[in-house]
Request: fold
Amino acid sequence: MLYRPEAFEQLTDEPWNEQRVRAAIRRIIADVDAAYDVDGLWPADDWDGWQATLPLKNLYVGAAGVIWALDALRRRGHAETQIDLAAAAVRTLAAFRDAPDFIAAFELPPSPEAALLTGETGILLVAWRLARADDLEGDLLTRVRENLANDAGDLMWGIPGTLLAARAMAEWTGEQRWRDACRDSTEALWQERDPNGFWSQHLYGSAYRGLGPAHGVAGNVLTLLDAIDEKRRTRLTNETAALLAREAVVQGGLANWPTHAGDDLVAEDGEIRVQWCSGAPGIVVCAASYLEEELLTAGAELAWTAGPPGVEKGSGICHGTAGNGYAFLKLFARSGDERWLERARRFAVHALEQVERRVTAATRSGPAISASSFLPPTVSTGAAHIPSSRPGTNEQLRRRRCRARVRVPVPRRRTRGRAAPDASAAT
Ligand SMILES: [Zn+2]
Reply:
């Protein structure tokens, strides 16, 4: 079995209608504007806010992610927020420095403040993009360089995340110091790659070899593809395509992947994940440019066959309908087959319905809605997370979050190679 049918719901019959979708985006942005508070930022979803100091500030599920999405939608002409985004971003940074929102129950990696998705780096990146102050740029560069010594080995906390931040800054500023930061981050990440093609993730007191975008090889490779020369890129994509083919579980024209290399699809909690951060959709999204097309298609076919994730997972990118629909868009880009565009649009309409259902339910029962989970799939830029209309006990919440568990013992490196940067290998 490649998925659990009971975890998914029936796809909506509502057809794609561009005007209806554009109006829904504007309505959601108006709701996000209305939910904003200068001091409280946005209310947190129960799952997102578990064991964290509120309000949530980070790029992953907090205010920085909401601000980033509002800015992206504005720049692309989809919707105009009424919030002063530069002021909100600076306020978010101050709030994080006053009370970081790390999950208290987790053992944090080294330099947690340097993390892109969960630390200060992502917040600084958003703040600089909007406020353009020299001190923000200096602080961001300090965080990116600080993270060169972080062996978390993943996008959320480690060097892949700060490599993305450095590349964005190099593009926006054209400054040599950011090109240098890209080069050094690229080399450090390359050095961390094991001879077997994996990276070892060292997270929350565990060590393992992850496969997916947020904590694994597929995400790490994607961050490197545009930062390395042709020779390295060919080697990296060939070796990773072979590795992902070995780890795939293929049945009847469908494919899925476990969260960690060598694991069963059925996780400790009994779930089989088919979502962005774990399972076929995230692999398809990250490896769309280099994975063998038949396998890529089998991964996307699984997400289509399973249908949209149910209410427990919701509409967001990490675990929900958005992330799975995103895989269809990537396969459309790879293959040019319009059937995948059509399927992506079907999922997008379904995700909008899920958001609207959630708003209706919240209005009836009263609980606050997280601004981060408000943003629907095709609208947000990646910050939307798991909405929950049925919060459980802390233990239930803990088990439901996507996080590392010990599976494959991996020795922690004692010495960390930091080879002299090779200017020819990075851009
Ligand atoms: Zn996740």
